């Protein structure tokens, strides 16, 4: 019989904003079960809401208690960002309005952008020294930029935005087209913004060990595929009648898990890559400071952009278009006085 040593480790404090909403609800039970930080890592959950969302968060906390998760060291519920981020090691910024049919994610900038400055400032004021922030609320990249700009004393590399959902969509759709298992797909990259301009790039992807562009029709890979991945969020809204929830929660959990525990290596010893929106230092010509999606690996608790991949003219144009949109969003939030 194995002896459970969970209690020997200090709990990690995970702050979830929007904990009374859909994605928060889908995420918190998996986090408390150990899916994000591992089966031996106790967690303390901080549920941060606005007053209207407090009952939802309270109800969810009651259900958490009813699960009696051995790893759950405690749950706090608050509508005060200062208390919500105090000592936070992981901050998952989900709370904000989702788009509805007919909207682009960028249309949420004015409605949601104002949330992220005060939350960034509260993270800067009170979070733990090792805080890692993932922004899920849309438009995620630019909201992450806003939060980061309000926390000048926190290393910029600790602010990220979620494009893992796009990455997972891109992997799933490629596997289906090629008729292989998801586990046989490697090297897919999402570049740019979590928006309709994003570029799911198969230039360096492989399917069962062979170049993806040989395994599927290249005109599909550089046409309908890109469109389908980039507009998958809208497709879900259309079919489900509401924006993605469980797949978004799953992607956010995978993003944090890989960030903290590492992306590791495949059986052949090659580092496993994924996609995440991180602050650019000018890699691949993306202007410094923008929060853009890149091919990344993580080890030692830090994301590292995979450099040196060849970028052909087609890819260069697609990346450029998405980055131009990120620049326009940055300029718009400057105009609005949000940064
Ligand atoms: N990046 C991605 O891949 C991705 C994927 C799916 C959804 N999203 C985005 O995630 C966000 C949340 O989606 P949802 O379905 O959970 O929405 P939801 O409406 O179900 O829940 C949002 C919750 O956030 C709370 N909230 C609002 N302002 C807040 C604040 N200042 N502090 C704390 N909480 C606050 C609300 O009270 C509500 O309970 C949306 O912006 C959506 O577009 C992003
Ligand atoms: O598309 C949306 O508005 C929700 C989310 O960003 C998604 O990609 O599913």
Provide a short characterization of the protein structure.
Helices cover 40% and strands 18% of the residues. With 339 residues, the chain is of the alpha/beta class. The N terminus is likely disordered.
Description:
The protein has 339 residues and is an alpha/beta fold. It is globular, with a radius of gyration of 19 Å. It is built from twelve helices and 14 strands. Helix 4 (109-126) runs parallel beside helix 5 (140-149) and helix 5 crosses helix 12 (313-335). The protein is 40% helix and 18% strand. It has two domains: 6-161, Rossmann fold, CATH 3.40.50.720; 164-330, Lactate dehydrogenase/glycoside hydrolase, family 4, C-terminal (L-2-Hydroxyisocaproate Dehydrogenase, Chain A, domain 2). Strands 3-2-1-4-5-6-12-13-14 form a nine-stranded mixed sheet. Residues 98-99, 105, 138, 165, 233-234, 236, 243-244, 248 line the site of (2S)-2-hydroxybutanedioic acid.
Q: How many domain modules?
A: 2
By DSSP (H or I, 4+ residues per run), the number of helices equals 12
Span between termini: 55 Å
User: The biggest beta sheet, please?
Assistant: 9 strands, mixed
Shape: globular
Binding site for substrate: 99, 105, 138, 169
Domain Lactate/malate dehydrogenase N-terminal: 13-153
Active site: 194 (proton acceptor)
Pfam family, one: Ldh_1_N
